[in-house]
Each structure stands twice: as structure tokens, then as C-alpha cells.
Amino acid sequence: MDVFSRNIIIAIDGPAGSGKSSAARLLAQKLGCLYLDTGALYRAVGWKAMQDGMDLQDAAALKTLCAGLDLSVRPDGNGMKVFVDGRDVSGEIRTPEVSRAAAAVAAVPVVRQRLLRIQREVGEKAGGQGGVVVEGRDIGTVVFPDAPVKFFLEASPEVRVERRHAELRQQGLAADLSATRREIDTRDLKDANREIAPLKPAGDAIRIDSTALTLDGVVSEMMAVIERKRSGNAD
To answer: Containing domain of residue 19, as a range?
Structure first.
């Protein structure tokens, strides 16, 4: 099969700080595909729940919120914008507080069920319009288990903390290195121990350790895998 067919879906998973978002955006640019950051959808739900003063573990309240939530994404250059009830919240959902809220709501089954449908709808529509690179934490295992190309990015804990800390500072947010380390440790624990869709590599995912690689180096490895699959020489 030609993985550059118009319905191509490329799945990229990995923990915070592994470089998956940057790699996914650059890969999508090189392939001429759309880019979908599924973590932003969980952040949007967490943000909305915080705005409404909700208990982030109240499944009944979150079910009601999700049922009436107007959540959409739109391409934006090499990235994407996220809208909640018609409001662009793309910047507001990137704070550490919203990150923690996203981790909390992501453990609630009704939230995952609702967002699973949205992710598949967006991904399948984008795939039919020229392909899509989808990144998150359960893309290759749950959202698109039949994706022809799957990657799992990882990096050393120290590098992941440094990357996340730098990202927060670039966004103009107050960032303490120790607090960033605690944030990542907490998120890792939640992701690994979720009852539904825990973070783990898909059985057929290509694992890439980005610890010592530049962004271009990571994407070059991905492109090499795609070219091998395209030529029928998949590992």
C-alpha cells in the first residue's frame, strides 16, 4: 500500500516532553498533511470544567459538560486552533493548571468516549482531504489502531523536564524547574495507570528515543521509516 495515499493517517504517541508535538507539526508540514493535537482537546475540556468551577472527577457533571460542549479545531498554518463554544482558547489551554486539569479529566471514561468520537471524525475527515498526522497518548493503540504508520517518541526524564520548562518560559509563563519536574512525574503516573487507554506503545509502533536528537533528526528518522514503508521494505 502507498502510505502517501490521500487517506493516510500517521499516529504519534509519547509522554510530555518527548518532542511529539514539534515532530508531528514538522512531519505534517513535510508531507503536506494536516496536523491534529489530540491533547489539546483534553485541555479544552479541562479548561471548560475549570471555567465552570466543576469537580474534575465528577463523572456525571463532566458527562453533561461533554454532551453540550461545542468543541472544534481548525488548521492554522503548521498548527491548529481550538475553539470552545466559538471562542478561540488555543493560548489559554497551554498553562500548567490546564495541563493538570486535562490529566484529571482524561481519566474519566465519559470524557474519553466523547473525545474519541471527535478525534476519529476530525482525523478521518482530514485523512480524506490529503492526510493527517495525529499526535497524543493513545492514538496508535485506541484512536487509530489501524493507522499504517505509528511512532512512539520517548526521551530521558531529565531532557523531558528541560524541554517542558523551556516551553513554558517561551510562552511567557512562570516556570520553576522543580515544579515542572513534579508536573511531568504526576502526569506520567496518571497516564501509565489510567484504567482506560493507558499510555503505552502500540505493538507495531516504531520507537524513537529523541534524547540526543534534534527536531530535524527525529523527523528525518520518521521520514526514513515512511519511505521504507512506501517502497515496501517495512521492518
So the answer is: 9-228
Here the CATH number for the domain that contains residue 103 is 3.40.50.300
- Would 65 be classed as within a structural domain? yes
Number of domains within the chain: 1
The full 3-state SS of the chain, as one line of letters, equals CCCCCCCCEEEEECCCCCCHHHHHHHHHHHHCCEEEECHHHHHHHHHHHHHCCCCCCCHHHHHHHHHHCCEEEEEECCEEEEEECCEECCCHHHCHHHHHHHHHHHCCHHHHHHHHHHHHHHHHHHHCCCCEEEEECCHHHHHCCCCCEEEEEECCHHHHHHHHHHHHHHCCCCCCHHHHHHHHHHHHHHHHHCCCCCCCCCCCCEEEECCCCCHHHHHHHHHHHHHHHHCCCCC
Q: Say if 178 falls within a structural domain.
A: yes
pLDDT averaged over consecutive 10-residue blocks of the chain (235 residues)? 63 94 93 90 96 94 93 84 95 91 91 91 72 93 94 95 85 80 87 85 96 96 91 65
Q: Are 47 and 99 in contact (CB under 8 A)?
A: no
In a domain, 197, yes or no: yes
Half-sphere exposure of 41 (CA within 13 A, CB side): 28
Question: Helix 109-127 to helix 39-51 angle, to the nearest 10 degrees?
Answer: 130
Beta bridge partners of residue 87, listed in sequence order: 84
Residue 173 lies in a domain: yes
Report how far residue 11's alpha carbon sits from residue 135's, in angstroms, rounded to the nearest whole number: 6
Question: What global pTM score does this model have?
Answer: 0.87
Beta bridge partners of 73: 82
